[in-house]
Amino acid sequence: MGQFYCLHCDRYFSSSAVMDEHFRTKRHKKRVKMMQGDAPHTQLDAELAAGMGEPDNGPSLRVRDVAMGL
């Protein structure tokens, strides 16, 4: 069982030499770059998707009341 783990690639390695060799590969560097980018979703995105964010009820009712003369 490998004792050395690459978090970015989700791989185990049998020795530190093999893991160091892996760190120099194009595949590993590409994954590291991808993981350092923007987060794909935020907590606000999740809440809005679940209907838990601030409601968007359209224009306020006061505008309609003014138009009706109230």
UniProtKB/TrEMBL annotation:
GO terms for molecular function: nucleic acid binding; zinc ion binding. Pfam families: zf-C2H2_jaz. Keywords: Metal-binding, Zinc, Zinc-finger. The keyword Zinc-finger applies. The keyword Flavoprotein does not apply. Residues 50-70 are annotated as: Disordered. Residues 4-33 form the C2H2-type domain. It comes from the Eukaryota. PANTHER family: EXPRESSED PROTEIN. This is C2H2-type domain-containing protein. It comes from Ceratopteris richardii.
